[in-house]
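Chain X:
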Amino acid sequence: MIQAPNSAQSWNAYTYVFNNPLRYTDPTGMIGIEERQWAGAAVAIVMTAIYPGSAQLWYSMLTGMVAGWVSTGSMQGAITGAISAGLFAGIGSYFDSARWANAPSGSGAFGSGLTWGGYGAKSLSHGVAGGVMSSMQGGKFGHGFASAGAAQAFSPMIDTIGNNSPSYAPKRIAAAAIAGGATSMLSGGKFANGAITAAFSRALNDEASRSNERQYGFPDNWQSLETNFVPYFTDDQAYLAASAVNGVVLADWVWSFNGETAKIGIGDMSLSDGSSMRPHRSHTDGLSVDLRPIRTDGSGGRPTWRSSTYDRAATQRLVNALRVSGNVDYIYFNDPGVTGLKFCCTSSPALHDNHLHVRYKK
């Protein structure tokens, strides 16, 4: 059987694998190293797209193992892929929850949500992981370092593709691959090697983490909360990630357990596709939810903290109930007489006069 019969090189027995035997080593003579690498990247993209949110680390490592085996056709490649995936996923998980590295929502380095120190540290960590991955595959540490580090450095810009919608994950991974490949060439390496390292980095960290966040739609959990909450949202604005759902459910239980009878207005959360919800900047990942302060008539309507119908004492009890879970990152609300809050948005100081913006941790 002749590979690529349209190429004259294929018909010359002395120019096996396009006269480049160090580059193409497939024993069948049908598939070269680069083809296998791109196939491995495709596997990583597909498995990331169907990522089950509850799987977390083990699924990332499984994805890396399968992609590594496809890329190399060997068990060593599968093991390398699993280890690399674990490194990238672990880095992403750490920086997602590291308080020192996270800036207030919607801000930070290039709008990444990370402080400048966190942004630099995460990029550097990705570079090290990429260098290790490259070394384990027989390449140079420096080339892998540059590719993965650059892909992460460009991550805030790549995130804007498709407004973080899950359906745009393949395009974001492709953009990271281009950035990593170009950086690899500039550092003296091969485009394909850098592109694959960057694609792995993006798929098994940023995109897998994003898939893990989008686990639940809030309407499925709504029935048990109808006794205390009064909704003022539309169905397409009612998406919450698992940790936020659990936090709201626990607050609902605490509210009932304490004998409270006032209703709580609950509103904007996130769109299920992760796109931006105007005028909000942070309601894109299912971790934010707006609640109305408590009214003196207990109706769940919308007062401001300056209104005569506003019940400060009951609102303080609501804040306390929300914080029982220990999973609240911060609560924006402008009443200086309520503790456990954070003041926000000097450019629009009245923005949180009439609702509590509750932000949950991942």
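Chain Y:
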Amino acid sequence: MKSLNRVAIGASIALLCVTGALSAGPLDLHQPSALMLASLDAPTELRFLKEGEGPPNRPEEGVKWYPGHYVFIGNRSKYFMDDEPDQLVRTYNDYAPYQIIRGSQVRYVWRELEPTTKGSYRFDKILADADYLHARGKKLIIQLQHKTFVPGQKVVPPYMETAEYDGGHFQIGGSNSGGWMMNSWHPKVQERYTALITALAAAVDAHPAIALININESAVSPPPDMLDWSQKQAATRDYVASLGPYLRSVFKETPTLSYANSPESWLPAFENSARQSGNGHGGPDTIPTAWEYGQTVTGTYDMAIRLRGLVPLMYSIQTRNYLGWEKGPTAGEPVPIEDLFGLHKDTLKTNFATWTPRDPYWANVKALWSKLPQRFPNDPAGGLQSKCPTLIAPCR
């Protein structure tokens, strides 16, 4: 029997100890080519922990800690991860000359990881990616997606597209041009996503090259005709916030982090979750002019400043971030690469920055990387915050 901590978020946070059976064949981390199968039985016992009692202690040797600069692979494939199996290799070859880059951040969509029957997980691609990078002295950040941005890329496994799960997911904005997002408010969808996280932790947590697990952004765009959205919104907020402490309870060797960018009214629940558990915070955008022009990301940035030094912090530099905000006076103008870096280094003081390739700006990004070893000698984090955050210490 394997003891797991689960969290309920409301007026206060309470931790539950959920005892269930995790049954699986041997999860051999040294055989990434094998098909990884695991299944999670339904919980059989519930135990309330004492008020303020946190998740289990970290291993005596500490949590893995590899802060620094990474390259983001946002579209590993258009629909499924096997569509472009060489993209990780191409990306590595592109950044290999720059010693300051610590590795890759890669999106993995739920439907890709549980592609057929309930409880049958495929983690071989993740492990193969981790092995490839490990052999080259690099690390992997796993971005676990319960949201997609491509119309043809559905997010939940096929078996969930039934009435039992209320269809499992919905199309963002109700438009055929939008991606998909899981029904985060639905108890049975929550149960299956939590099972995915549990099985993923069992398969990959001990891998030495896996630097971080992060959950995709919290922003929600429901169809305009969705019924009972106010109730569903509250249930979504509570579940997404609860993922932080749950991640920390099952990933005992790997730091975890949730992107919390909006709605702004949800941020107190996410901050409470982070402070309770040590789960990290961040978001998908780096916008140096956020406060100057009153952009919506100021809430998540203010939260990052309050949490710095306590939990891991990571923001991505997305393709749209290389140009000025579309509603500001610099709309469409290139953003100086030094300004993007400065928001991380000086203002937010993040531990991780993940850069997304975009021409013609990519050459300027590489020029920055080439100078970082001289600007910050003997600093693998390349000027970012390298100290182990208090709430996940000790680190190794």
